[in-house]
Amino acid sequence: MDATSAMRNDAVKVHSMQGYAGASSAAPCDMSSAVADADPMPAGYPGYLTIDLAALSRNYRAMVERVSPASVAAVVKADAYGLGADRVAPVLYASGCRHFFVAQFHEALAVLAAIGDDADVFVLNGLQPGNEGPCAEAGIVPVVNSTEQLAAWQAQAAALGRPLPAVLQFDTGMSRLGLAPVDFDSVLRALEEDNLDIRFVMSHLACADEPDNEQNAGQLAEMQRIAAVFADVPLCFANSGGSFFGKTYHGALVRPGIAVYGGAPHGNADNPMEPVVSLDVAVVQTRSVAEGAKIGYGGAHVATREMVLATIAAGYADGLPRTLSDRGAVYFDGVRLPIVGRVSMDSIIVDATALPAGRLTLGARVEVIGPNQSLDALAADAGTISYEILTGLGRRYFRNYR
To answer: Strand pairing partners for 122?
Structure first.
């Protein structure tokens, strides 16, 4: 190990011990702290979240084949979309990934500790004041989004007497993050100091999940205009959806997120990616109710006939949104069991009348995400997107990595 790598590793260890509480770190009451790598899954958990790391690797390698000769980064922010960066990042690294994107500085420390010294970690939100020194020490690469961040990072480079790596992000039409068009000339003047190693010029597509949205072409044209000024700097532009638009969007590096985790890159279109997660939730109780019975909080659902109900052991505290109330469903033996009444914090009531009598019993597991109901289908029923479902899946489930 060379001196630079040793310094980076020491920095990661020090700052990781200074209070980073990533979602993959088990809290004292974290019921998922026991992680299995093989079936059978232990009894007693309210739900069982299976994370197929082999499928994740295949999805990454499929993206590599799709966008070649461009390279493929992996977005592992939000604890690898809720699936555990400490488990996901090493698999992606073993699959050939050498560029990892996170949102926050402390996420970068956790990912650095899980991958090899020859990989880079980029912080999409850039740095908060005071993070410049630790970032430089750890060898993390900030994405510079504003003139303030640029000035602070250049000041850190000057203080250290050496160039520091950076990615320049420009706002090409999303109005969220990135150097504004009005600041373009001042940025060029600031870069004349020549104390930054600009690794990539980048931007972010706002409508990549909508292939026909004209904003995509508009952003591409603006990105190409900016890239022409930085002709010697590689371009990083396409996200998951943009990676399917063709080579003009790819640049030198694409950075898929949801596609690697099995989500559909383009909204309601056919999904070319393999599922990575499945979720089964245990039955707590079954009962029969008469016509007219009020079901759930507020009596929001009233039985229109005699019904068999099953209460399952997960709710909005476990990442199943309240918007699934009276509109979502789970599956058992391939039979759709509609959600009736409001989703509670720790439980959901479903209509099991369609099943044979006595088929669904205490402890039986119903499918929430799986062969009969994809991640995207569940999100659609909840009126949201797959990203929100995936990142919200709770820590009370037993996590089975395979």
So the answer is: 101, 141
- Which amino acids are annotated catalytic? 77, 297
Kindly report the backbone phi and psi dihedral angles of residue 329, in degrees, each rounded to the nearest multiple of 5, phi listed first: -160, 165
- The mean-pLDDT minimum among 252-256, 268-272, 301-305 falls in 268-272
Domains of the chain: 3-26+53-254 (3.20.20.10), 277-401 (2.40.37.10)
Q: Which residue has the tokens 């980076």?
A: 8
**Is pLDDT of 337 > 90?**
yes
Q: Using the predicted structure, report yes or no on whether residue 169 has a pLDDT greater than 50.
A: yes
Q: Which residues lie below 8 Å from residue 175, measured CB to CB, with a gap of 6+?
A: none
